[in-house]
Amino acid sequence: MRKKILVIVCYPLFFIVCLLYFLVQGFPVSIISEMITGQAQRSLGMKMTIGEMSTMFPNGIEATGVRLVKEGKKEKLPLAINLSELSARISLLGLITGKKDVSFSSQLLKGKVEGAFMLDGGKWSLRAKVAGVDLGKLNFWKDIIGQELAGKLSGDVKLAVDPKDVKASSGTINLDIVQGKVGQGKAYGVTLPWIALGKAQASLEIKKGKANIKACKVSSDDIEANLDGYLLLQQKIEDISAHCRLRFKPSDEKLAEIRKQIPEELRSFLDNGLNRAKGKDGYFRYSIFGRIYGGKPQFRPLKQ
């Protein structure tokens, strides 16, 4: 009797598992690829290309050679992101209830990003952890801040976004950079040397259409700095603008190193320019405003 029960239960179960396996393995991944690339174009305004894609049993996909590109037009800057490996699994229960719930893991810029993405109607939410992403591999820092930026980025992101109403979006972003450094760009006509950032930390809270900077500080042997203010969010990435105040104090050694690179006849001009932003405490203060992507933010000395 027990043997008959096992046969009755096991054979159908084995058949169902095999059926699911071959359905997944034999699924036309080109359809998934077209859906994903189309969604990237509609939601992010970015062109996605995928090198190879395959299915993972029982409910996932994996891809290699993924590339996201946002073309530059006129004043807008080109943006390219490469993902060497990407894997994702979709919740079957979520599909039944009408929600698209996807967990993902990706190798990005020599680091790792993993988390979950949920699309419910026209709204979406994201939870992600970032570990060891190499900022030096991104190609747009000099166009945005006028300098190269390097270091290893880690942190966590929690977002709930309504694309039709930016003010209804909310979330938090907490980031750490280790082995950070900035430089190799022009300032007052002089190429700055690398400035070590040590360990930099940033924390943002998103609500009512703004990304408020709750904390952003840098501390190293080369410089002490902090940033406050907010980013004004928009539906399009290229329209996001900064409304911030920067306060920094380079070490005497680093400031002397920079001055050595300046032709002697221009040093007084540079000193006059910097003195307008320098306070009695030795800190330089600047306001930063303007579009971040597609137009360089403006730096202006703050009155002391």
What features would you describe in this structure?
The strands form 2 sheets. The protein has a 15-stranded antiparallel β-sheet that branches. The protein has a two-stranded antiparallel sheet with strand order 10-11. 24% of the residues lie in helices and 49% in strands. The termini are far apart. It is built from 6 helices and 17 strands. With 304 residues, it is of the alpha+beta class.
Bin the helical content.
Answer: 10-25%
Structural class determined from secondary elements:
alpha+beta
Quantity of strands, as a count: 17
Question: Mean pLDDT across all residues, rounded?
Answer: 77
Low-confidence stretches: 21-26
* Topology order in helix (H) and strand (E) letters: HHEEEEHEEEHEEEEEEEEHHEE
Q: For the record, give the distance between the C-alpha atoms at the N and C termini, rounded to a whole number.
A: 91 Å
Shape: elongated
What profile does the largest beta sheet have? 15 strands, antiparallel
Strand content: over 45%
Alpha-carbon Rg, integer: 25 Å
Supply the number of helical segments. 6
